[in-house]
Design goal:
Layout lengths: L4 E5 L4 H10 L3 E14 L10 H6 L2 E8 L2 E13 L5 E10 L3 H10 L3 E15 L2 E8 L3 E7 L9 H16 L13 H10 L1
Antiparallel strand pairs: 1-8, 2-3, 2-6, 3-4, 4-5, 6-7, 7-8
Length: 196
């Protein structure tokens, strides 16, 4: 399945944004914590101009705490990126892994190194099959991720961008104060802050 999503930056405090949603009938459906370790074999090639290319070849060691249960996975995100560096779509490959420490050692033996850690707490609000995931990202701020539920396999870039514009406007129409960005990239921004 080819998914699309937008990630916007919250421009007000999370409590007031959530209150606006609750007044419109949104309900909290889950909370989680995510700790992603991005591993790359190309750290020595990293430059400000090739961050997206390096990220496309990363493996994530994902520690997820959901409803008190720990879930560990190795994840690869196959992102389709346009000529402007915007993410068009994404297909994830997930592999359950009970022993991420040994997985890390395995990747290190294959000359992978830690590129960046992305840690955040998530609270998801839902109404009528629409879910907004508030992500409080360590060293970055609060974002809202909105994943589309339709399969965009075979859709044109124009159709995808129109769907993303519609999703952005849905968030705006709730009255939540967000910036104009539609594709905030957590790992990308944290890499820029860490290395450049």
């Amino acid at each position: 399945m080819k998914q699309i999503e937008i990630t916007v930056r919250l421009n007000e405090d999370i409590e007031s944004a959530i209150k606006k949603l609750e007044l419109q009938g949104f309900k909290k459906i889950r909370e989680s914590e995510v700790n992603d370790v991005y591993m790359t074999s190309k750290l020595n090639q990293l430059s400000k101009d090739n961050i997206q290319d390096i990220l496309r070849k990363c493996v994530l060691l994902r520690y997820l705490k959901l409803e008190g249960k720990e879930i560990k996975k190795i994840t690869y995100k196959n992102k389709e990126i346009d000529k402007y560096g915007e993410v068009i779509s994404e297909q994830k490959i997930n592999l359950d892994c009970n022993d991420l420490e040994n997985a890390r050692k395995l990747f290190e033996h294959l000359e992978f190194e830690e590129l960046v850690r992305v840690k955040y707490k998530v609270v998801v609000y839902s109404k009528d099959n629409v879910e907004y995931a508030f992500q409080d990202v360590e060293n970055l701020g609060t974002l809202i991720e909105y994943e589309g539920t339709k399969d965009f396999e075979g859709k044109s870039i124009k159709e995808i961008n129109e769907a993303k514009d519609k999703m952005y406007n849905e968030i705006k129409n709730t009255g939540i104060n967000i910036t104009k960005e539609k594709d905030v990239k957590k790992a990308y921004e944290l890499i820029v802050n860490k290395y450049f």
